[in-house]
Amino acid sequence: MKKSYADYLLDKENNKGREFSQKDVDNGWSVVQHNDVELEGWWDQAFSDRITPGQTHDHLQDPGQFIGITQNKAFRSDQGGLVRDFQNKAHYYAWYVPAASGIVVTDSRSPEYELQKQYNGQLSTESISRSVPPLHRLSDSIWTIWLGITGQNSRGLRYIGRGNIINPDTISIMKALFEANRRTTRVPWPGITAGIDSMIGKVLLGTPNGIATGWLIVDHHSILGRRKPTVTIWTYSTDGPSMIPHEDDDLDNVYMMLWDLGPPLPY
Fold first, then answer.
1. What is the torsional sign of CA 23, 28, 29, 32?
2. 204, 231 contact by CB (below 8 A)
3. The pTM is what?
4. Disulfide engineering: 241 pairs with which of 46, 144, 251, 264, CB 3.0-4.6 Å?
């Protein structure tokens, strides 16, 4: 029987960072595992400040695993009668930290985004639907990897962070919320926190960088249980949780988001 993408991730002997061939991996996804993205402050601030009092920082020093998947399948499209073959450069990169019950997504570009970029936003919804692989959402990717790492402890997922947000729609909304609540577009850690029942929480859940959290909770409620998350947003500072910026980053426009799913609640 042919192994699926999920089977490979759940098989720890195969999850060692090598790139699999097309015959091994469904729909062109390759798994990569490395540690070239640095994070600051997530373990001892974003996570430890928000979980059970009394847990020591030593418990949270395990940096976890940095794992990404990249899409390397050549797609063919006949949009507008023009047949084109091109590489889809979609990818999802994240830190998975079971010791802190958290995931920090560091870079995400969906197959849909990459397809539209190839066609300057002119690709029809129908063409995209025919071209993207069945497994294409960020929520499915990070859950599959989390499940492979944690196994029976997957229910313990508590935090989903988004580092260095660059989506212009999300940034525009975050700036508007900062201005409305703090009269500035820069609000360093601890930022602004809101419940899912609030206007801020609902708006952020609907952003391109927030919707994956909603899908993950809904799709996997049988394992995660009923949750009532809160969300925190903030801007880069040297003393708050962040990704280590690159030399050419505009530090006035580095935005972060953290979802605290909360504990499982009774139905």
1. positive
2. yes
3. 0.79
4. 46
Give the pLDDT means over successive 10-residue stretches in the chain (267 positions).
40 37 50 62 58 42 76 62 64 86 89 77 71 78 86 90 89 95 90 94 94 90 91 86 61 84 86
Amino acid at 118: Q
Cβ neighbors of 58 (< 8 A, separation 6 or more) are: none
- Per-residue DSSP letters for 54-72? T--GGGG----EEEEEEE-
Q: Which residue has the tokens 């919320």?
A: 177
Name the DSSP letter for residue 193.
E
Rg from Cα positions in the chain: 19
Contact 162, 212 (CB under 8 A): no
Kind and range of the H or E run holding 222: helix 221-224
User: What is d(CA 255, CA 267) in angstroms, rounded to the nearest whole number?
Assistant: 34
Are the CB atoms for 33 and 19 separated by under 8 Å? no
CA pair distance 215, 87, nearest whole angstrom: 27
- Whole-angstrom distance, CA of residue 110 vs CA of residue 87: 13
CA–CA distance from 259 to each of 102, 201, 224 (Å)?
Answer: 10, 10, 14
**Which amino acid appears at position 112 of this protein?**
E
